[in-house]
Amino acid sequence: MIRIDDSVITAQTLEGRLAGERQVEICPRAKLTPSAQDFLRDQGVEVIRREAGKQAPQSPLEPRKKAPAPAVSSGGRKAFTGIFCPNIVIFDSQGKINYPEMERYINWLIESGIQGLYPNGSTGEFVRLSLEERQDVVRLVSEVNQGRVPVLAGASEANLRDVLKMAEFYASIGSVDAISLVPPYYYKISDESLFEYFAEIAQESPLDILLYNIPQFTQEISLELMERLLPYERIFGTKDSSRDQPRLINTMHRLRAVRPDYVVLVGCEEILLPSVMMGASGGTIATSGIIPEVIVELYEKARSGDIERARTLQYRILDLINLMLLGVNFPEGFKTGIAARGFDVGPPRASSSAEEQEYLLSLESQINCVLADMGYDIRGPRACPVTNLPPIIGR
């Protein structure tokens, strides 16, 4: 019999360690991924869970500290305020989800101060994952999180029936707090049909719903339509990635006139400070996956009224977001930034040309320079002029 102390055990882990053994002992809280369960069944391997009193020392991949319990709104749901990180998905050399590295990454985000997790968002490239992989990602994030921060999970499937199936699956996990939902993509439908779509999901979903407006990728959710959906209590807010600040301000102005607690999250870091100053509940910010300390501080300084510090941080993140967002397939620029923070992000899911791969190499050195300028300890190539800007972390 062999003992495995990893907190997340994949089929790859088992293939590399079993070496013909027919029994495996695991710790009480270990998570067997679906691929691991299939492998064990196919190979006829017996699983023995160690008794709690005989637990081995804590794995370095397990959470090292507890975050404060998330705030709860007066309506009973967790308060969706602060910075939610739309986490990437990390793949191994075989192109499969790298569960141990994902767990290390999620723990790091929480320990760095992230106030919410957002799996299966655009940065998590959910459209490039299979149904089973999307479910695995949310299950992993939820189990690593252990209730430390709210979890907003993307449930944007190709049709209404599959959206509800995914919502039911998330509800069965027991630690997903709400789903994020874009309009049905590919086919454009009328606003009346879109109203019926959201209304039916709101009536049937076991979880609360955050409407996701991202007109770059699917049709826009008009303010008039959102106002019509206000009577549905399941729909408690919106994430706006339109990059349109006047629209964001009008969203808060019009919808909160009817429901003062309506959550509005901004999905664009370039306008995070002015959005929070005008009353945004927080943001789903992709760069929070690379510089969580800076993005959380920006939000908190904006909320506390330290506008000079918040303005400094807002301007200092612009070079980084521009580098990662432009000139390369999304979200590979962000993955390059996460790799600079010490994570093995693995190969991309999308194909890229030789020129794009070469650009990513040069992008790495530029991102390293910006991060070093901020005060991070970065190892690796750098190609940038000396700016003499003061560091903004470690103050």
CATH class group of the domain at 82-290: Alpha Beta
List segments where confidence is low: pLDDT < 50 over at least 5 consecutive residues.
Answer: 53-66
Helix fraction bin: 25-40%
Which H/E pattern describes the elements? Answer: EEHEEHEEHEHEHEHEHEHEHEHHHHH
CATH architectural group of the domain at 82-290: Alpha-Beta Barrel
Work out the radius of gyration.
22 Å
Going by CATH, the homologous superfamily of the domain at 82-290 would be: Aldolase class I
In DSSP terms, counting alpha (H) and pi (I) runs of 4 or more, how many helices?
Answer: 14
- Largest sheet entry: 8 strands, parallel
Task: Bin the strand percentage.
Answer: 5-15%
Number of strands: 13
Judging from the principal axes of the Cα atoms, what is the shape?
A: globular
Mean pLDDT: 88
CATH topology tier name of the domain at 82-290: TIM Barrel
Distance between the termini: 51 Å
Strand order of the largest sheet: 7-6-13-12-11-10-9-8
Protein structure class: alpha/beta
Topology:
Layout: E1 2-4, E2 8-9, H1 11-17, E3 23-26, E4 31-32, H2 34-43, E5 46-49, E6 82-85, H3 99-111, E7 116-117, H4 131-145, E8 152-154, H5 160-173, E9 178-181, H6 191-204, E10 208-213, H7 223-228, E11 235-240, H8 245-255, E12 263-266, H9 272-277, E13 282-284, H10 292-304, H11 307-316, H12 318-325, H13 332-340, H14 354-374
Parallel strand pairs: 1-3, 2-4, 3-5, 6-7, 6-13, 8-9, 9-10, 10-11, 11-12, 12-13
